[in-house]
Amino acid sequence: MSASRRVVVTGMGSVSAGGIGGTAVVAQILAGAPSPIRPVRAFETAGWPSRLGAEVDDAALEGLLDPGAARRLSRICRLTVVASRLAVEDSGVPRGPALGLVVGTEHGDFRSSEEFVTGYLKRGPSGLSPMIFPNTVMNSMAAVAAIEIGARGPSITVNQATVAGDLAVARAAALVRDGRALAVVAGGVDEMFAHVYRRLSEMGMLSPAAGRGTEGCRPYEPDHNGVVLGEGATFLVLEDLESARARGAVVHAEIRSAAWGNVPVAPHTAPRRRRDLHSPALRALVSAGAAPSAVGTCYGSGNGDPALDDWELGLLAADRLPEPRSLASRFGQHGGLGALRVAAALDRLNKVALSPTTLVMVHGLARGGCRTALLIGRAA
Predict the structure, then answer these.
(1) Which stretch of DSSP H or E encloses residue 105?
(2) Quick check: 266 pLDDT over 70?
(3) In this model, does residue 245 exceed pLDDT 90?
(4) Which residues pair with residue 235 across a beta bridge?
(5) Where in the chain is the domain with CATH 3.40.47.10?
(6) What confidence score (pLDDT) does residue 276 get?
(7) What DSSP designation does 54 have?
(8) What b/e string do you get for 90-122 counting C-beta neighbours within 10 Å, with b at 16 or more?
(9) Residue 229: helix, strand or coil by DSSP?
(10) CA atoms of 128 and 187, how far apart (whole Å)
(11) What is the pLDDT of residues 109-159, one digit of tens each?
């Protein structure tokens, strides 16, 4: 990244199955809280191949919303609004045209889409609700969150499996670096929805895939056998370093560089030995003027999908990077997980006795070939 536009993280907000809060709460969750993955309670899973998930406590969520917003907003929009507001409050970043927003999501608001279509199927055109329709658009979460936090700068929604949150943070870093915004709230969100859960389970995408082994989330392990879904929203505040220091903000760490791209593969395949000749991980290192040996820790996007886990291990080994750590077994796979990986990187830099020059990489890989890399270090 250009030295004239250094990008730092000044706040975070999270609504996850592990808990709800800002930087301090996220640090407590990462410190070793028990995994919230357990049998799904929100809908009946009897007879389905899978039954586990990591669910948000709705009672705690509703307590952070005024009754009018709780009635008006869809559930995924409520998750987005609360997490982004917590991030802004944690950072103290000012509202206005210099504040942008980037939201990543894997599935979007399927719940509202189902409700909208059901109205038509039951009652015809008169059953199409103009109140529900705006929620069926993929950027509805960004729209309501931007109003809530006063973000009148660039607003972007990215839709990508597995790495939606990683890609959102990378895009946000580029916005700040290029001077298109002084600060950007960036992260991801998803909610568990019965129809999506059931279809993914029946397709063998969720653990225990094809009925093999015990259900559970075991990224990178020899007995990994599928994904366990989670839900929630996590957002970070990325800010121009000079602006952050000028207003006296707490600077948690610096995003030294960010890169993304696509490994050229056939759709929905993930051959482990396919090389990435334009590796975002290596491009991020070159941009930061660092060698692979400077990376002390790597947080990866492994989520228990055997093909994806093995592919990511192969790509990172080819780039001579450390074996990755995963957070999926703590939070379940969802759009906010990428931002939680960045939060874990910040936490590690600030708590572990690492060399001042040691970097942490947050790496992401999706089955379709989308690959992301964020290189994070202390802000000198």
Answers:
(1) strand 99-105
(2) no
(3) yes
(4) 13, 187
(5) 7-253, 256-377
(6) 79
(7) B
(8) bbebeeeebbbbbbbbbbbbbbbbbebeebeee
(9) strand
(10) 31
(11) 988 888 889 998 999 998 888 888 888 888 999 999 999 999 999 999 999
Q: Return the structure tokens found at 262.
A: 């696509």
Instruction: Report the alpha-carbon distance of residue 101 to residue 242 in Å, rounded.
Output: 20
Q: Tell me the average pLDDT of the chain.
A: 92
167 phi and psi angles, rounded to 5 deg: -65, -35
CA gap 361, 343 in Å, rounded = 12
Q: Any idea which architecture 256-377 has in CATH? A: 3-Layer(aba) Sandwich (3.40)
> In this predicted structure, what is the pLDDT of residue 3?
52
Q: In the predicted model, is pLDDT for residue 50 greater than 70?
A: yes
Q: Are 217 and 228 within 8 A, CB to CB?
A: yes
Q: Which two tokens stand for residue 26?
A: 């996220």
Q: Cα-flanking dihedrals φ and ψ of residue 280, to 5°?
A: -60, -30
Torsion over CA of 310, 213, 48 and 35, rounded to 10 degrees? -70
Question: Which one-letter amino acid corresponds to residue 135?
Answer: N
Q: Considering Cα of 122, then 128, then 131, then 132, what sign does the dihedral take? A: positive
Name 83's Cβ contacts closer than 8 Å, sequence gap at least 6.
13, 14, 15, 187, 189, 232, 233, 234, 235, 336
How much of the chain exceeds pLDDT 70, in percent? Answer: 96
Residue 2 has pLDDT above 50, yes or no: no
Distances (CA, A) of 93 to 77, 221, 336: 21, 41, 21
Q: Please state whether 124 falls in left (phi above 0), alpha (psi between -120 and 50) or beta.
A: left
N-terminal to C-terminal alpha carbon distance within the chain: 15
SS3 (DSSP) at 366: coil
* CATH 3.40.47.10 for domain 7-253: yes
CA of 257: how far to CAs of 48, 273, 302, in Å? 43, 26, 22
pTM as predicted: 0.94
Q: Provide the Cα torsion 230, 176, 152, 253; round to 10°.
A: 50
Nearest to 106 by CA among 331, 337, 334, 261: 334
